[in-house]
Design goal:
single chain, alpha/beta, Aspartate Aminotransferase, domain 1, binds pyridoxal-5'-phosphate
Length: 395
C-alpha cells in the first residue's frame, strides 16, 4: 500500500550511516558514549510512581476524561503552580488544557489554525515537529535563523514583511533545543508586541522550562502583560520529573486558543489518563524537593563536558538551560554529519549533527547530557580523553 503523500514528504532519516556504524561498533563490543538522545536517564521520582499506583486502583480514573480540558484538580494544581512559580494568574476554567506531552499540543495547535498556504514562522535550528506538522496542514514553514551573534534569538526585524503578512503562527522554544539558549522576559515582551502588531499567535514551547542552571529561572511568556491575547505556552512533565514516557503536560494561554486546541483534541484523542493527571498533581506538589536535585545533576555534567571540550580547543559558554551543548564543528571538518561520523568511528563518541535541526544547524553538533549506563561523569571524562588521543589536531 502506498503511503500518503504527507508521509512520503518527510525526509528520510538522514543519519542511517551513523546508526549503521553504531550497531556495528556495539556488535564488536566497543564502548559508545552516547550523547545523542535527549531523554532523561534518571528514573521518575518514587512519589510520582506511588501516586499513579494509588490513582490507578480507583476505578473512577479508568474511563474517558469527559471534562475535555483535564480534571478539575489537575487544572487547579497547574493554576496554583502558575501563581507560585511565575506569580501569574491562570484561570483553571478556560485557560488550561491538559495534553499528552508538549509534543501533542504543539502539533495540534497547528491543526487548529493552519490552512493550505498559511505561513508559520519557525526557528531554525528547531525541534522538527513545528515544521513537519505545518507541512502536513499544507502550510509553509518560514525559517527564522537562530544565530550565535543574536544569542540564538530570532531577529524579528529581519523577517520579511511578505512572510509576516501571510503568517498566522510564530513558534519559539526557550530554553531552547538544540542550542541551550534562554530568552529574557524583555525578549518575550518584544515578541508579544510584534505578535499584536502583526496579528500572530505565539506558540512558546516551554518543555525545558525547569532544566536551568546557576540559579537562573526561565520566565514564562505569560508573565508579559497582555500575553494571553496573543500567546499559548506548552509545558511538560517530561524533562522536569523524568517522565518522558508518561506523556503528560499542559498548555496555558488565552481561552480562545485553549478552546481551539481542545476542539482538535476532542476529535483526535480523548485526553490524558486520569490517574496520570493525578500523579502530575503530586509531582507539582513535590516540585521544590525534586527540581533542585535534578538541576544539580545536569549542572555537574554540563560543567564537566564544557570544561573538557574547552580543554580540547573549543571556547564554549556554559548554557543556562536544557541538557544540550551546542558546539561548533572544528574547521578541519566540512560538515556536521562528517564530524559526527568521525567522532563515532574514531573516538566512540556519539553526537547529533546540527543539520538534523535544519540547514542553519549545519556547522554545529548537539551533545545531550543525558547518558545511559553508570558513572556519567566517568563517561564524560572518557569521551574527552578519547577525543584528545584520537583527534589530536582538531582546532
Ligand atoms: C523542544 C521540545 N519540545 C517538546 C518536546 C516534547 O516534549 P513532551 O515529552 O512533553 O512531548 C521535546 C522533546 O524532546 C523537545 O525537545
Amino acid at each position: 500500500m502506498e503511503l500518503a503523500q504527507r508521509l512520503q514528504r518527510i525526509p528520510p532519516y538522514p543519519f542511517r550511516e551513523i546508526a549503521r556504524i553504531k550497531a556495528q561498533m556495539l556488535a564488536e563490543g566497543r564502548e559508545i558514549i552516547d550523547f545523542g538522545i535527549g531523554d532523561p536517564d534518571m528514573p521518575t521520582p518514587d512519589f510520582v510512581i506511588e501516586a499513579l499506583h494509588q490513582a490507578a486502583q480507583d476505578p473512577t480514573t479508568h474511563q474517558y476524561d469527559e471534562s475535555g480540558y483535564g480534571i478539575a484538580e489537575y487544572k487547579q494544581a497547574i493554576s496554583d503552580f502558575a501563581a507560585a512559580r511565575y506569580g501569574i494568574q491562570i484561570d483553571p476554567d478556560g485557560e488550561i488544557q491538559s495534553c499528552i506531552g508538549a509534543k501533542e499540543a504543539l502539533a495540534h495547535i497547528i491543526w487548529a489554525y493552519i490552512d493550505p498556504a498559511d505561513v508559520v514562522l519557525i526557528p531554525e535550528p528547531a525541534y522538527p515537529v513545528f515544521g513537519v506538522q505545518t507541512t502536513w496542514c499544507g502550510g509553509a514553514p518560514f525559517p527564522m535563523p537562530l544565530l550565535p551573534e543574536n544569542d540564538f534569538l530570532p531577529d524579528l526585524a529581519a523577517i520579511p514583511d511578505s512572510a509576516v503578512h501571510r503568517a498566522k503562527l510564530i513558534f519559539v522554544n526557550y530554553p531552547n533545543n538544540p542550542t541551550g539558549a534562554v530568552a529574557s522576559l524583555e525578549f518575550f515582551e518584544e515578541l508579544v508586541k510584534f505578535a499584536k502588531k502583526n496579528e500572530l499567535l505565539i506558540v512558546q514551547d516551554a518543555a525545558y522550562a525547569e532544566v536551568t542552571f546557576d540559579g537562573y529561572e526561565a520566565p514564562s511568556i505569560m508573565q508579559v502583560p497582555g500575553a494571553k491575547d496573543v500567546a499559548i505556552e506548552m509545558h511538560s512533565f517530561s524533562k522536569t520529573f523524568n517522565m518522558t514516557g508518561w506523556r503528560v503536560g499542559w498548555a496555558w494561554g488565552g481561552s480562545e486558543y485553549i478552546d481551539a486546541l481542545s476542539k482538535v483534541k476532542s476529535n483526535v484523542d480523548s485526553g490524558t489518563f486520569m490517574a496520570i493527571q493525578r500523579a502530575g498533581i503530586v509531582a507539582l506538589a513535590n516540585f521544590d524537593s525534586h527540581v533542585p536535585q535534578m538541576r544539580g545533576e545536569y549542572q555537574q555534567r554540563r560543567d564537566a563536558l564544557v570544561k573538557g571540550l574547552n580543554s580540547l580547543g573549543w571556547s564554549l559558554e556554559k548554557p543556562k538551560g536544557t541538557f544540550y551543548i551546542w558546539a561548533p564543528v572544528p574547521p578541519s571538518f566540512d560538515s556536521s554529519a562528517g564530524f559526527a561520523q568521525a567522532l563515532l568511528e574514531q573516538c566512540g563518541v556519539l553526537v547529533t549533527p546540527g543539520s538534523a535541526y535544519g540547514s542553519t544547524g549545519e556547522g554545529f553538533i548537539r551533545m545531550s547530557l543525558t547518558l545511559t549506563g553508570e558513572d556519567k561523569l566517568g563517561q564524560i571524562a572518557r569521551a574527552i580523553d578519547s577525543i584528545a588521543s584520537n583527534m589530536p589536531a582538531l582546532w
